[in-house]
Amino acid sequence: MLLLPLSGAPQSLVNSLKNHCRMSLVEKLYKRFPDGEQYIRINSDVKNDGVVVVQSLYPEQDSKLVELYLALEALEGLGLTNAELIVPYMAYSRQDKRFLVGEPISAKAVYLPLRLFNIKRVLTLDIHSPKIPEIIGLAIKNILPHSYMVEKAGIEVDFVLAPDKGALHRAQALAESLRKPFDYLEKYRDRVTGEIRVSTRELGVKNMRVAIVDDIVSTGGTLAKATQTLYSLEANKVYAIITHALISEKTLQTLSTSGLDVLITTNSITQPSALPTWIRVVDVGELLCHELKSATK
Questions:
Q1: The pLDDT of residue 273
Q2: Which residues are CB-neighbours of 176 under 8 A, at least 6 positions away?
Q3: Is 187 a catalytic residue?
Q4: Does the first or last residue of the chain, that is N or C, have fewer Cβ atoms within 10 Å of its Cβ?
Q5: Rounded CA gap, 39 and 32, in Å?
């Protein structure tokens, strides 16, 4: 089996996949023309080998998407018709319906072109909406990594919480694996201003170690408010188990003042080289490799 990592694939994840799956790298040429257009050429003989393409779609999501489509077309041009695709972070997956008149369904617009290619399998980590595979008409294996993350991080959890009802399936999956109770907060977002309000529910979390489970943290506003809410309810410790941490200076500033004890995330995207000690990055290469191998049995 061969591995074709594109520019969005974190190097730590590429190394992990190579080691755990024992894959060799596909040789390729990649460049940009002076006008900004991308060029890719596959230099390895791939026709008689299975190829796993890895591309995470952050940052510069638009550029990463074009690179992915160029690579898939290049593989088909070489006669490969069963490439496997790992997209650890699928950008544009937050909108699976039209909230306001005139809006696009972004996931549909962005991922429908995948159907043009004869892809054997698509793996992703914690896609924002489970409805997206149905919307685009493509079978996607969605892996929820939260129990794996908790195990690798070595933390003890008494209670699992979703920051809103939409993330409840994540909290439930983790809680069931840990055999712990779970619940969710009520979150309200103004679709025009983006302002977020979190209401206090009757949660019995006093003196408990609470894990907030979600797919994405970006600005950190929702997570900070959820953390503060839990401390107002006398939680002992608050952990955040977030699959994709899109960390910026604003994120760090917001969360560092929230009282959050630990943020555990994955290497689904390339993380900054210098992170504060309260952020831990879990390698998911072994988890993805296990899924690749189990599906071939």
A1: 87
A2: none
A3: yes
A4: C
A5: 6
* Mean pLDDT, residues 34-57: 94
Q: What are phi and psi of 47, to 5 degrees?
A: -60, -35
pLDDT at 16 over 60: yes
Task: Dump pLDDT digits (tens) for 151-176.
Answer: 999 999 999 999 999 999 999 999 99
Check whether residue 70 and residue 189 sit in a common domain. Answer: no
Tell me how far CA of residue 194 lies from CA of 92, 93, 224, 252, in angstroms.
Answer: 17, 17, 15, 20
Q: Render 110-130 in DSSP notation, one character per residue.
A: HHGGGGGS-EEEEEEES-S-T
| Sequence letter at residue 167 | A
Query: Are 155 and 261 found together in one domain?
Result: yes
* pLDDT tier at 47, thresholds 50, 70, 90: confident
Determine how many CB atoms are found less than 10 A away from the CB of residue 271.
17
- Helical ranges in 28-77 per DSSP H: 61-77
Nearest to 94 by CA among 51, 52, 35, 135: 135
Looking at residues 205-222, what average pLDDT do you find? 96
The active-site residue, picked from 180, 187, 225, 237, is 187
The residue range of the domain holding 7 is 2-143+286-296
What burial class does residue 127 get, using C-beta atoms within 10 Å of its C-beta: 0-12 exposed, 13-18 middle, 19+ buried?
Answer: buried
Q: How many structural domains compose the chain?
A: 2
If asked whether residues 110 and 92 sit together in one domain, one would say: yes
To 10 degrees, the CA torsion angle through 152, 155, 161, 166? -10
Cα torsion 226, 250, 129, 214: sign: negative
Which residues are 3's β-sheet partners?
A: 25, 52
Residues 150 and 126 in one domain: no
Residue 228 belongs to a domain with what CATH number?
A: 3.40.50.2020
Percent helix, percent strand, percent coil in the chain, to nearest 5:
35, 25, 40
The conformation of residue 233, written as its DSSP 8-state character, comes to: T
